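ugh finaly. both done.
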Amino acid sequence: MSDTEHYPMQAKSDSENSLIVCGAKTRTGTACKNQPMAGKKRCRMHGGASPSGKDHWNFKHGYWSKEEKQQRTKLMRMMKAYLNEMQMT
């Protein structure tokens, strides 16, 4: 019985004899024998198909980044200065 028959959900790759495997542990505690997805370290069943970067649903937007805080602080100072100037006239 070949590997593709034993693991029917395993994606076929260009290099069937590649030594790179998923790296995750199965429920029985043994190592996963599937090949990782392209550019990933895990197979599709152990997180290789999950979106990453801006596509991920938990991506941080940067509202609290240092640069963003500085821009908001600068804008608030400008607005306060403008309102103070308007009140004086």
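ok and the 2nd:
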Amino acid sequence: MDKYYIFEPEVAGNITKSDFLDKDTMPPQINTLRYTFDGWLGDDILESILVFVVSERLKKSIEKENLTGIAFNDVEILISEQFNELYPNKKLPEFYWLKITGIAKKDDFGCADKRLIVSQKALSLLEGFNIEHADVEECKI
């Protein structure tokens, strides 16, 4: 039996509430994603209310491994005043929207109980990137 994990990424900012089409579904239904950075500790996968963004290098690796349960889309990245004060010279890499389309404990990426669930294969790939500020625990859902 495959192992699955609850994966809670770094929260480096927030999304604009007006982006929601239907906030009662999980993951929420969103038309256009705008992610505003308030800080960033350097992780390659970030979250805001079950919406995820990934660095370009992580996106390429996920695509290369053909992991299931995800699709990628563009994200508009915004920088808050707080971010500029904290990191006046920090340059952000390119980020992409990691849309969760899979079924938890079936696909490599899925959502259950308002949490991101990843397979052992997905976790092994993620561990090769900066996920220092993510919380990971075995899924018992």
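summary for the 2nd one i guess: Residues 4-138 form one domain.
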